Description:
By secondary structure, the protein is of the alpha+beta class. It has a single domain, classed as Deoxyribonuclease I, Chain A (4-Layer Sandwich). The protein has helices at about 10-25, 60-70, 145-160; strands at about 30-35, 75, 90, 100, 105-110, 115-120, 130-135. The strands form three sheets. A three-stranded antiparallel beta sheet has the order 1-5-2, with helices on one face. A two-stranded antiparallel ribbon has the order 3-4. Strands 6-7 form a two-stranded antiparallel sheet. The longest helix has 16 residues, at about 10-25. The protein is globular.
Amino acid sequence: MPTSAYEDQDIEYVHDQIEENINNLTSKEYTVYLGDMNTVVRKGREGSVVGPHGLGKKNERGRMFIGFCSRKKLCIMNTRLKIPERRKYTWKATVDCNGYQLDYTVVSERYKNIVKDAHAYPGAIINSDHNLVMMKVRLHMKRPRRGKQKVMWKRELLKN
Length: 160
């Protein structure tokens, strides 16, 4: 995402690109976005989008991001799950020692229950000023019914 040095039109352009990708998906596909959104959505529940376990004070870009997620029925998962404070911040400024939550894991509201954990790993050795953010999910795959498959297979044999 563009940083705070960019105009709001640049942010909206990126949101439009993400929205275009979402519109190309079918309703049964899992929608997961992980990344540096360069925004603060704050601590406190806001509809089904933001949970009670965020970090910081909401800024204008945060309002834009929450509005976007609300329109597209997305949930910001690393604000919904209760995690220790040291695992919430994803970027730490060198000037002040405050940590900020700028990187988010976002999933479709329909599949929010598959997410079991989403938090930052502040001790990971990576070449970035951001902390590594990971998400654990539990997918439930349904097996196809064998009875229908056998019937279809027998019909094909009878045709030949």
